[in-house]
Design a protein that fits this description.
With 424 residues, the chain is α+β, with helices and mostly antiparallel strands. It has 12 helices and 21 strands. Bound molecules: adenosine monophosphate and glycine.
Length: 424
C-alpha cells in the first residue's frame, strides 16, 4: 500500500509507527507529521485541510490509501471530496464522510441520533439565540451542576460545567447571543449532568462489520488529582480496570451495535474509527460524546496493544471486507504519560531542545509537538511527547513510563505524576 497519513500529533506518530510494521506497506507519507513520524516515513509539508494540495500530492505519488488522523478534515468533508473526484474516487479513505462526521461536528446531531436509536445518553435540549428565554426556563427546571455544550467544534473548549444557575444563564447568553465560541455556539445543547468514571471505547468499521479495539482512559486536566484546566490529554491507560467483561458487553450491546445499525438505518455510510466517550453511571454505560477519529493520547496505548497488521484492517475497511479480517490484541497493559511545555494549556514557548531521547530503551516515545532540526529535536507544541510502555499490569507499565520520562528533559518540561493512580 502507498499511504498518506494526515496529522501531526502523538496519535499520528503511533499510527505511523504501527503502519511501518505492516508487511503490505510500500511507502508512507505523513502530512505534515513531526520529528517522530519522520522516523517511519516521509513528512510532507501540507496542511490536512488543504484538499486541493492533498489531491495533487496523492495523484503525483500514486497514493492508494489516505488515513485521516484529526477530526477537522473529516468534518470539512475530505472523504466526500475524494469520493466526488473522478481521479481520486478509487483512493481509499480511512475516516467517515461529512454527514457521518457530524457525530463529532455537531453535538445536536449526535444527541438526536442517540435519541432516535435509543442509545443511552444524558437528557438534553438544544437552544439558539431566538430561544434563549426557553433555555433559561430549561435551566431552571434542572438541578446543578449545569452542562452547556457548544454545538460545533470548539477545539475541546466548548463544554462548560457550572454550579450556579445564575452563571449558567450568563454563559448560555454569552454562547448564544455573544458568540463566545463563534459559530460553534450558535446552537447550545444543555444536558443533564452525569456522575461516574469516564472511559473511551473505539471501533473500526467498514459500515457493516466492526472490530472493537481495547478501551482506554485518558486524563484531561493539567493538574494532579484531575485539577486545573482541560488539556488535549495528559496520559492514558489501557485496559481500564473498572471496565469488566459485563460492562464491556453492555457497551457493545447498548451502544456500539445500536450505533452501527443506526448509521445504516439513517443511510449514513461510515468507514473509519468511531470513538465513544462513555461514562459509567452505576454500572451502566452512557455516551458523553462521539468522535469520528481515534483519541489522542488514547491511540498511544490502544495501537501498541494491537497485534494484527493495521493495514490489513484498513484494507478491510476500504473494500468492505472487515468481517473477514482477524484482529488480535496484546494482553499486557499499556500506559502513556505526556510531557508538555511549561505554561500549557496556556501560552508556552516553542523551539526548546529535547535531550535524552536516545537514552530511552524500555518505552516507545511517541512525538506530539516536536520538530527535527538537523540531528536535534525541538519542541513545537504544547503536548510534546508521550512515553508509552507495556507491562504485565498497569503498575509495571506506569513505572516504566515514568522511568523513561526521567531520562528526557527540555526547559520547562512538565508531566503529571499520577496517571493511572485513580484506577489502580
Ligand atoms: P465532551 O466535549 O462532550 O466530551 O465534554 C467534555 C467533558 O465534559 C467530558 O469529558 C466530561 O468530563 C464532561 N461532561 C460532558 N458532558 C457531561 C455530562 N452530561 N455530565 C457530566 N460531565 C460531562
Ligand atoms: N483524548 C480525547 C480526545 O482525543 O478527544
Amino acid at each position: 500500500m502507498r499511504v498518506l497519513l494526515l496529522g501531526s500529533g502523538g496519535r499520528e506518530h503511533a499510527l505511523a509507527w504501527k503502519m511501518a510494521k505492516s508487511s503490505i506497506l510500500e511507502e508512507l507519507f505523513i502530512a505534515p507529521g513531526n520529528a517522530g513520524t519522520g522516523q517511519h516515513g516521509t513528512n510532507v509539508d501540507l496542511s490536512p485541510e488543504n484538499f486541493d494540495a492533498i489531491r495533487a500530492f496523492v495523484i503525483e505519488n500514486n497514493i492508494d490509501t489516505v488515513v485521516v488522523g484529526p477530526e477537522a478534515p473529516l468534518v470539512k468533508g475530505i472523504a466526500d471530496y475524494f469520493a466526488k473526484d473522478e481521479t481520486l474516487s478509487k483512493v481509499g479513505v480511512i475516516g467517515p464522510n461529512q454527514k457521518a462526521a457530524q457525530l463529532e461536528g455537531s453535538k445536536d446531531f449526535a444527541k438526536e441520533f442517540m435519541k432516535r436509536h435509543n442509545i443511552p445518553t444524558a437528557k438534553y435540549a438544544t437552544f439558539t439565540k431566538d430561544t434563549l428565554q426557553d433555555g433559561y426556563a430549561f435551566l431552571e427546571s434542572m438541578k446543578a451542576p449545569y452542562v452547556l455544550k457548544a454545538d460545533g467544534l470548539a477545539a475541546g473548549k466548548g463544554v462548560l460545567i457550572l454550579d450556579k444557575l445564575s452563571n449558567a444563564k450568563k454563559e448560555l447568553k454569552s454562547m448564544l447571543a455573544g458568540a463566545k465560541f463563534g459559530d460553534a455556539s450558535s446552537r447550545v445543547v444543555i444536558e443533564q449532568f452525569l456522575s461516574g468514571m469516564e472511559l473511551s471505547c473505539f471501533v473500526l468499521t467498514d459500515g457493516n462489520a466492526y472490530k472493537i479495539l481495547p478501551e482506554a482512559k485518558d486524563y484531561k486536566r493539567i493538574g494532579e488529582g484531575d485539577t486545573g484546566l482541560n488539556t488535549g490529554g495528559m496520559g492514558a491507560v489501557s485496559p481500564v480496570p473498572f471496565a469488566n467483561p459485563t460492562f464491556l458487553d453492555k457497551v457493545e450491546n447498548q451502544v456500539i451495535i445500536p450505533t452501527i445499525k443506526g448509521l445504516k438505518k439513517d443511510g449514513i455510510s461510515y468507514k473509519g474509527f468511531i470513538f465513544f466517550g462513555l461514562i459509567n453511571v452505576r454500572n451502566e454505560p452512557y455516551v458523553i460524546e462521539y468522535n469520528c477519529r481515534m483519541g489522542d493520547p488514547e491511540t498511544e496505548v490502544v495501537i501498541p496493544r494491537l497485534r494484527s497488521d493495521i493495514l490489513d484492517l484498513f484494507e478491510g475497511v476500504v473494500t468492505e471486507t472487515l468481517s473477514e479480517r482477524d484482529v488480535q490484541f496484546d494482553e499486557r497493559s499499556a500506559s502513556t504519560v505526556m510531557m508538555v511545555s511549561g505554561g500549557y494549556p496556556g501560552s508556552y514557548d516553542k523551539g526548546k531542545q529535547i535531550y535524552g531521547l536516545n537514552a530511552v530503551s524500555d518505552s516507545i516515545v511517541f512525538h506530539a509537538g516536536t520538530q527535527a532540526d538537523g540531528p536535534a529535536v525541538l519542541t513545537s507544541g504544547g503536548r510534546v511527547l508521550a512515553a508509552t510502555s507495556l507491562g504485565r499490569n498497569l503498575e509495571a507499565a506506569l513505572k516504566t513510563s515514568y522511568d523513561s520520562l526521567s531520562k528526557i528533559e527540555f526547559e520547562g518540561a512538565y508531566y503529571r505524576k499520577d496517571i493511572g493512580q485513580d484506577v489502580l
